[in-house]
Specification:
Elements (H helix, E strand, L loop, with lengths): L1 H10 L3 H12 L8 H14 L2 H54 L4 H16 L1
Helix pairs in contact: 1-2, 2-3, 3-4
Pfam family, one: HAT_Syf1_CNRKL1_C
Keywords: Repeat
Protein name: Pre-mRNA-splicing factor SYF1, putative
């Protein structure tokens, strides 16, 4: 759609507006999968632009390409972090179950009081 709009702007002589459409559309065009878009923008800059506008197009292309590469590196890391969080939650759940099972067993009231005194004593020092 953006290519058609850029072509329309170019046909009526609005070169800067056409260039603006290309810049806007570049955010959505992956350099590897949308070769048609990048080739048309390159042809446009060769025909209508100058060295600065051509370099700007190349800079934007590199920037967009880098953003797609970073996205692919970040996604697997997020998955690993999610897996680690699930593992930690499972371990915490197992520890809680273990503690509940220990507390449900018969415990001497005196032994329990002594244990609590030892804990509090350790905190006082």
């Amino acid at each position: 759609m953006c290519l058609k709009y850029a072509e329309l702007e170019r046909s009526v002589g609005e070169i800067e507006r056409s260039r603006g459409v290309y810049v806007f559309a570049s955010k959505f065009a992956h350099p590897r999968s949308d070769q048609d878009f990048w080739n048309k923008w390159r042809e446009f800059e060769v025909q209508r632009g100058n060295e600065d506008t051509f370099r700007e197009m190349l800079r934007i292309k590199r920037s967009v390409s880098a953003s797609y590469i970073q996205t692919h590196f970040i996604l697997p890391m997020q998955k690993d972090q999610t897996d680690k969080a699930v593992t930690i939650e499972r371990k915490v759940g197992l520890i809680r179950k273990r503690d509940e099972n220990e507390n449900n067993g018969e415990v001497d009231g005196d032994a329990k009081d002594k244990d609590n005194e030892n804990r509090f004593g350790a905190l006082k020092n």
